[in-house]
## 1
Amino acid sequence: MRGVPSKLLLTVELLLLAGLLGGELSAKQITDYQNRLNPRFRKILRKDTRFIIIHSTESSLPSALRTLSRGRVRRGSYVSLGGHANYLVARSGKIYRILDPKYRANHAGVSMWDGLYNLSDYSIGIELEGYHNVPFTSTQYDSLEWLLKVLQKRFDIADRDVLEHCRVAYSPPNRFHRSNVRGRKLDPGISNFDRARAGLTDEYAYDPDAVAGRIGDGPVLLKASAQLPAVSEEEPEEEPEGGPESENGTSEAADSGVISADRTAWKIAGSRYNAPTTIYTLPDGKTLRGDEIVDWGNIPAGTRVELDVVGVKATKLVSAARKEVIVPETSSTLNPWKIANALYNSPFTFYLFPDGSLRPGNSITNWPAVPVGTKVLVAYRRLIFPGSLSPLGDDLGDIYLNSGTLYLFPDQSFKSGDQIEDFTQIPQDLLVFAKVD
């Protein structure tokens, strides 16, 4: 069909395939989102398509669409140029085309399967709106099944070559492990994603790279990866620099919470090694948060590691269901100074009293009278109400969708910018706070 525009060709092909698939799968409408791509993103034709890789967004729909199309924002600047998936399937079942599937999307990161590295070069990326530890919806599975059948037909991809991101991501050797290991990513959920509900009837029984010795720990069943930590902090696809290793993850479950010669912080805590909610208790009794440790080489043997400790200094902790952000609050043993240190009386530290009143630190004079249960926001500034006319926040600046931006609802609950699902439905008396770097 030479001479036919690419967009029209894809539409025609989708319609034809929908008819070929039979009545059990009704045709779906795809919303084309390609005009939102970062203009600096360079489209590259993928020369070989062997796999489809399923991800979960780990954020709400507005934030996910913004990030996948425009790129990741860190401290007000883009650190990637978008094009991070070919499709996104919303919880409502709506399908968004982020990038034509013939183009390479930068979605798989450091990855390997059956001897092939850098799987973004060989695969189509599909994101599911949601989290790796929260079930996906029935309508989502229905739409995903339809989309998979269309793409599998077009690119001749077998069911077993539709892979979850957690299967293919890996961490290369470093000082904490001598071989490549799985476990760098947890999406779309080791026990959360149901292949059968997506219409997939075949899968690999073993990790072919473990069998071939390209992945450490010998041949292991893929299902054994369920030993991985069940909850992880949100993390960007671009891997953080520094820390105990350059790539996030471990394929080995923590059978002990004590650091030893062969049990590193990484093997125990995985991608949460440097989280503010991971607490290290040294042999001398001193405790440190993961984000306080700089020299990981000097952590002594005998140090005990605790995960998911709701510490008073945690700047952001999202519940397992990703429904509410938990912020530190005063108690009988935790006063404003212990929570905010030198910023306790700063105009950039806000105190939300149990009665619902909000005061900046520089307006408080009677500190002993600050009641127990007062929530404390350390190093934040107020933003004006977003006032968006778009449910997805397309008309807002990136800061409003940022995971570090907090929305305070009238019931005193918090959500982060990447958790807001419809910006036109947020209450007018809501308050917005952006983190001060």
Note: The radius of gyration is 23 Å.
## 2
Amino acid sequence: MKAKSVEFLSVARLEVVEAYLWYAERELDVGERFLVAVALSESRIRQNPEWGTPHRRKTRKMRVEGFPYHIVYREEADKIVIYTVAHGKRKPDYWIDRL
């Protein structure tokens, strides 16, 4: 079975950039490690979307390893859509209206 493509909403991609910049301002290689961890999570989601924990409104959630972030996504017929890359301790469900 061919892996589905993964599509980030533009606001989710912006969340990745903002988190990267926050970490990179403190220590550049931490920012780089964050990007690698997000890419690894994305790869895992692409390989097996069922790995994520069931979440609200038919989404799934996967932790970004080594960081207090998680990715919320939904598998559709032809792709996987990432709705948010959210900090786990800030404003829960602020992204819910993106669904």
Note: DSSP finds two helices and five strands in the chain.
## 3
Amino acid sequence: MAAATTPADGRSAWDPASRTQIASWTLYDFGSSAFNTLMVTFIFHWYFVNVVAADTASGTVIWRRAVMISALVVAILMPILGAAADYGGRKKQFLVGFALMSIAATVALFFVG
């Protein structure tokens, strides 16, 4: 069985990652997890329920439905997008693209309400 090669650097997909690569991905995951925990669980939930949907009696229900729908979208799309990034050797491009989308969405929260 021939090893798949990554077009970006020509390395085999099965070559071990360097210590720098492992540290970089670990720090990214740590920062991303902390950001998501703070923003989605605490800050934006409170803001949505008390400011955006304050005039409705069911702000919490709307929030729960939005989180449920987004979780379903993630559960359906992430395996497909993850396989595409791995197979195509475009992990960094996917990372940068989704990081920019996350930054843009966070900045757009300024205009909500």
Note: The radius of gyration is 19 Å.
